[in-house]
Write a structure and sequence with these properties.
Blueprint (H helix, E strand, L loop, with lengths): L3 H14 L5 H14 L20 H4 L5 H7 L6 H8 L4 H15 L7 H10 L7
């Protein structure tokens, strides 16, 4: 049995995907739709734990040292290893993965988009401009 709400969401995704990477066009379309249907859209608020949701959690877990926290996080020797672990699907996710590699893993305080594109090109996934 199909869900009409899920089908409508799929149609919206398909329509917005046809606009490519033009975020301004997406904003115009979404504003038009909200106005057309008289809907007020507010930014989503992050989920906050409810009272009691985390009760007892800290008591059950021993404190972890900085060394233990670092040891628990995976390490990647090459960009390809991180890329394969993340398995990004969209161009945005691919770019974010490369940017993460440059800024966090490679500890660079800044980077240029050319470096991101070069990493992705070496993976065979760079986008054409």
């Amino acid at each position: 049995m199909s869900d009409p709400e899920i089908e409508a969401m799929g149609n919206v995704v398909a329509a917005l995907d046809r606009l490519g990477d033009d975020n301004d066009a997406r904003v115009r379309v979404l504003r038009w739709a909200a106005d057309r249907y008289g809907v007020q859209v507010a930014p989503a608020e992050p989920m906050k734990p409810s009272a009691g949701m985390l009760d007892g959690l800290a008591e059950d877990m021993p404190p972890r040292s900085a060394d233990a926290r670092e040891a628990a996080e995976p390490t990647f020797g090459q960009f390809v290893d991180l890329f394969d672990a993340v398995d990004p699907r969209s161009d945005v996710d691919k770019a974010l993965t490369a940017a993460y590699w440059l800024q966090v893993v490679s500890k660079q305080s800044s980077w240029q988009s050319l470096r991101v594109n070069n990493l992705l090109k070496d993976m065979g996934t760079a986008w054409e401009t």
